[in-house]
Specification:
Elements (H helix, E strand, L loop, with lengths): L6 E2 L9 H9 L19 H18 L5 E6 L2 H13 L5 E6 L2 H10 L4 E7 L23 E4 L1 E2 L4 E2 L11 E4 L16 E5 L10 E6 L16 H6 L9 H17 L2 H21 L16 E4 L4 H13 L2 E2 L10 E4 L6 H17 L2
Helix pairs in contact: 1-6, 2-6, 3-4, 7-9
This protein binds pyridoxal-5'-phosphate.
The site of pyridoxal-5'-phosphate has 12 residues, from helix 3.
């Protein structure tokens, strides 16, 4: 089943660990002697209850989520949370600070403006998002209901090298492209959200981890499915949750736990990224534009400096079994997304290809 798989560098939906796909395949038509697939089961059945409960328990165990936080499995993607966060949290002063470090944080900021006084409290847009602002480049409002960051900038390939000190104001982080990539001190955040299709599961489920004291009546007019209060009261089952995707989260978490947890994921991810950046830095052809201390270990961006050569690179790489290396349309160039499921051999194969391409096109 696995012989024809290629190295897929897609930013999302992206590779899933092969053992997870194999387990899902083995259980696809008949889950645990039930005579049916998980996707055919009632979400209220006893068997499914065990699946969603163990997905949550594993997430709590692997990430070290304390009982003072609620875990929700929702739909609508990270983009849905761009609206749900302000609708649920912009309820006291009606103000929120957004730090704009790339495309998705810009979108989150724009969406929040529809629900209250969202303000840019820091931005590196003028520097083409080449780095993350330092604490003294931020102007935070102590009255804000929260401060929003995008922790890993999937498109530009940068990552917060520190977490901002927001005082008593809760920190909200979009972790879509870095959740489960390394250990995370959940207590530093008021709320974490992540669309699944980068490092968690297939597209269609969104995880929200929210401190219990932040759950309360949302803004008037909030759709009930987006209300944290209502979803928390109903164990993410106010309506039918994305049942099969939650089952995949459970399998991914089992895999991570069996592999050694987030410390092992971090070690592997850092080694993969370090290898690739080291090669880019010593090469004459390829350049990465992110300041070194802010480089992402999940999304590695690079260019040759020529659009034509970039296009040739992507085409020839794909023909060599290295798929989806084209950068996002807003930045161009190349992007290698190397999430948990990308083995080190995939990065080695990419570097070999890059070296060959450099020689041939020098
Ligand atoms: C992919 C991504 C999004 C968008 O996710 P959707 O599921 O398409 O809504 C938002 N933020 C970040 C950081 C992402 O990587």
């Amino acid at each position: 089943m696995s012989e024809n798989r290629i190295y897929n560098f897609s930013a999302g939906p992206s590779m899933l660990p092969l053992p997870v796909l194999e387990k899902a395949a083995a259980e696809l038509c008949n889950y645990n002697h039930t005579g049916m697939s998980v996707m055919e089961m009632s979400h209220r059945s006893k068997v499914y209850e065990e699946i969603i409960e163990s997905a949550e328990a594993l997430l709590r165990e692997v990430m070290g989520i304390p009982d003072s936080y609620t875990v929700l499995f929702l739909q609508g993607g990270a983009t849905g949370q761009f609206a749900a966060v302000p609708m649920n949290l912009m309820t006291k002063s009606g103000k929120a600070d957004y730090i704009v470090t790339g495309n998705f944080s810009q979108k989150a900021y724009e969406e929040a403006q529809r629900y209250g006084a969202a303000r840019v409290a820091g931005s590196t847009k003028a520097q083409n998002f080449a780095y993350i602002p330092s604490q003294d480049e931020l102007s935070l409002d102590p009255e804000a209901d929260y401060v929003h960051i995008c922790e890993n900038n999937t498109i530009y390939g940068s990552k917060w090298p520190y977490l901002p000190d927001t005082g008593n104001v809760p920190l909200v982080a979009d972790q879509s492209s870095c959740i489960l990539s390394e250990p995370c001190d959940v207590t530093r955040y008021g709320l974490i959200y992540a669309g699944a299709q980068k490092n968690l599961a297939p597209a269609g489920v969104t995880v929200v981890i929210v401190r219990n004291d932040l759950i309360g009546p949302p803004q008037k007019g909030t759709p009930t499915v987006l209300s944290y209060e209502m979803q928390a009261k109903n164990g993410s089952m106010y309506n039918t949750p994305p049942t099969y995707n939650i089952y995949l989260i459970k399998l991914v978490l089992e895999y991570i736990k069996e592999t050694g947890g987030l410390a092992v994921m971090a070690e592997r991810n850092k080694a993969k990224a370090a290898k690739l950046y080291a090669y880019i830095d010593e090469s004459k052809l390829y350049k990465n534009h992110i300041r070194k201390d802010c480089r992402s270990i999940m999304n590695v961006t690079f260019t040759t400096g020529s659009e034509e050569l970039d296009a040739k690179f992507c085409k020839e790489a794909a023909a060599s079994g290295l798929a989806n290396l084209k950068g996002h349309r807003v930045v161009g160039g190349m992007r290698a997304s190397i999430y948990n499921a990308m083995p080190e051999e995939g990065v080695d194969a990419l570097i070999d290809f890059m070296a060959r391409f450099e020689k041939e096109n020098a």
